[in-house]
Amino acid sequence: MKFIHEDAMRRLPPLGSLRAFEAAARLESFKDAAAELGVTPTAISHQVRLLEEELGTPLFIRRTRKVVPTASGRALAVRLGGAFDAMADAVAQARPRPGRRLATLSATLAFSARLLVPRAGRFRTLYPGWDLRLHASDEPVDLAAGEADAAIRYGRGSYPGLVSVPLMTECFAPVCSPRIAPKGPEDLRQATLIHFDWLLAKVHNKTPSWGDWAETVGLTGLDTTAGLTFTDENSAIEAAVAGQGVALLSLPLLGSELRSGVLVQPFGPVIEGLGFDFVFPEGADARPEVATLRDWVLGELCPAAGPSAGLSAGEA
């Protein structure tokens, strides 16, 4: 049993007295406050008097047809008004919204920012009875515990206890701002290389690195460890867009930048990475949240595949 020291507890007057006072101060009338709260003016007067006694200070100047808050009363009323508004908002958020459903999708930080967020606005247009919650994290959520309805995972496609739908295979190539684009791989010896240190790639022993790329192209004499290193892919992308160097980045995540010309791929080759899969718990196929998210993700990212394509239990 947890014991809380008395000094750490909230020591408040009765809530009824606070509500009566706040309404009377806002309306400057015991009669109007009574009508709002569904009690008698006498009850409002009694609650206010109890509060004044507890606080040891008058809160109103009582006049014939109205009551006027004192300086102390005005200060208290302002703070209580904000507190009651916050309480009302918290209660409203806790209540289920009638006629609407919530679907929660988890994905990595970069995947969420680059591929899901730009498409999120279309979700409610396509599914007007639903709200979408995107959970962005490079740490996998516990789908069995209900932390999310479904997720997009990066890996080798084998997820025990989960059904997986293959989405895309990641591939990496040199990209940079067109302002500093090198003419050929040999020019990289004079360029600043941009690296990102992604934990998930390390876990799967499939880290895309400049060393791998240089070995593939047969480029020697390139210091593949020098340059700028970032701990997340989004920062590496922003550095490349800013013209700070040449980065080895995921092409599927850079669709908008490559199409607009903000970034260019000056040359190859392309290195293949692992895959992105849409995953959900086994046996959850019929859940409306899972079906809605699956249809949306496949429709946005794999429109040619169709909403029911590629289901496999436990593997890609």
UniProtKB/TrEMBL annotation:
Q: Note the PROSITE patterns from the entry.
A: HTH_LYSR (PS50931)
**Can you name one GO molecular function term for this protein?**
sequence-specific DNA binding
- Example GO BP: DNA-templated transcription
* Keyword Transmembrane helix in annotation: no
* Transcription as UniProt keyword: yes
- Entry keyword set: DNA-binding, Transcription, Transcription regulation
Q: Which InterPro entries match?
A: LysR-type_TF_proteobact-type, LysR_HTH_N, LysR_subst-bd, WH-like_DNA-bd_sf, WH_DNA-bd_sf
Residue stretches making up the HTH lysR-type domain: 13-70
Which Pfam families does the annotation name? HTH_1, LysR_substrate
Indicate the family of this protein. Answer: Belongs to the LysR transcriptional regulatory family.
What protein is this chain from? LysR family transcriptional regulator
